[in-house]
Amino acid sequence: MFVDMVGYSAMMNADQDATIQAVRELKNHQLEPVLSDFGGEILKRMGDGWIIAFSSISAALDSAIQVQTNLYGHRKLKLRIGCHLGEIVEDEDDFYGAGVNITQRIQTEAPPGGVMVSEDLFRQLSDDRAKLLNEAGTFNLKNISQPVRLYQWRPAPGSQRKLDDVPSIAVQAFEFAPVDAETEAIAGDLRDQLIVRVSRRKGVLVFDALSKAVDKATYDLRGRVRMAGGRGRFTITMTSREDARPVWSQTYEAPTDDVFAFCDEVLELAEGDLRLQTNAFDGDRLVDIPLEELSVSELRARAANEYYKTTMESWSYGLALMERAISLNPLDGVSLCMRVEAQIMLFGARYQPLPIELQAAYKEDLDTAVIQSPQSDYVFWTRAVFRLVVLDDIEGARADLKRSAELNPAYLENYELEGQIAMREGDFDGADAAFSRLIERGAQNPLQPYRLFMRGVARFCGGNYEGAAQDASTASDLRPNEAGHLKLRAMALKEMGLEDQAEDCLERARGLSTDPMVTTKLPVMPPDFHWMSEKLRPGSRA
């Protein structure tokens, strides 16, 4: 067992004497006596942390739950506890073993006030004790080659329902027509690949309902494949098991001249849409849990939900959530990247550069994130964006884009990055093409107005004023309260010689808020077009 005090460093900075007294209270009254009662042996004390060994799995879990139950609602003390089953190697100086390292990493994933245990330990529990825990999902722990499934417990006093159940999807058989061997094989491939791809997402559990009976799941996912006349149609539908209510459905079509290309295209679209849905599911389940009780992964899920709301307020709140996540685990790679992405978006929406003092710190953070999360497409994507937008390092951005695409060829945000690099190099047709692929494949994404704005800017710079005006108009229809879209449309209309329409757009823009907006953040511009920043920035009277 690893035990860690939440917020120890901040407490020490605020009031060292009070913090020392709190640690003594914890050691002498709240923690060590309870652990001792359950046969726990203190192997090591580390100021704000403890390593404890047990001879009994049930004693380890029972003591952890007892400690956290006793501390529930304590004014100052809050712990995170992680447990794992493994051997411990001892010498004269210290305690070692892979089990010790894994336990420490599990502890960093525990919710404040809660307990996180490994699947190895969970499988050894009695049915009664196992029912106390909820499946928390799969986690990529440093230096562990395969994702690890973890289970968590947090206090739920009184009649409070279990709020920390992770949404789960049971993937059922896919229907297909015509009923022949080739179409059956295509449907099977689509199903198998979709299971693998969605399983990589955090905050959702995916079960193959054909491999074994799935008794408990939040949703059923069904698919239909139909091939006819040189085209294929792939439909997926998600249904709530609780009330048999369809909660989401989408259809994808593509030519079938090359069945492999057909599968790749519809899977890319389906994975992108399911990524949005699973993020929404994960964010929704956390709304009622107090902020101070959320784990690092739960804070990330809530922040992702905020980012999809596409307002300055929601991105600012998401940034604050990531600051808290990093305070819980300063080496969490995805949290470090989500903080950087939020800052780039917020400063970019204000048409301001990232402050110099943040640039050096964030460069180091992103390098740390790559070391901590080397298999994350998002981590490499974020460092690429930082290199391009903040450092103007085109080659570095290209290298990270290549790595992100190798890790996940279906990661749609890579099209945005590809378009931004093309914009910086003055390849406006290439930027148009990349942004177009992103827009076509991400129709359900809440960031669609932002993507239309970027493509509109690329088209304007490339002389396609009619296309720029149309993109700006569509974006404005989606976000009618944002002046930047109207300004871009006015610029394009003026170039087309439609002066009256341009002036009408500007007049409407002047009547709107001058506050910065996330969906009118400029893409990276080549030097010859920096003048557009002054025309489009919030508050300008272009």
TrEMBL record:
GO terms for biological process: cAMP biosynthetic process; intracellular signal transduction. It holds the Pfam family Guanylate_cyc. InterPro entries: A/G_cyclase, Adenylyl/Guanylyl_Cyclase_3/4, Nucleotide_cyclase, TPR-like_helical_dom_sf. It comes from the Bacteria. Residues 1-107 form the Guanylate cyclase domain. GO terms for molecular function: adenylate cyclase activity. PANTHER family: ADENYLATE CYCLASE, TERMINAL-DIFFERENTIATION SPECIFIC-RELATED, PH-SENSITIVE ADENYLATE CYCLASE RV1264. This is Guanylate cyclase domain-containing protein. It comes from Sulfitobacter sediminilitoris.
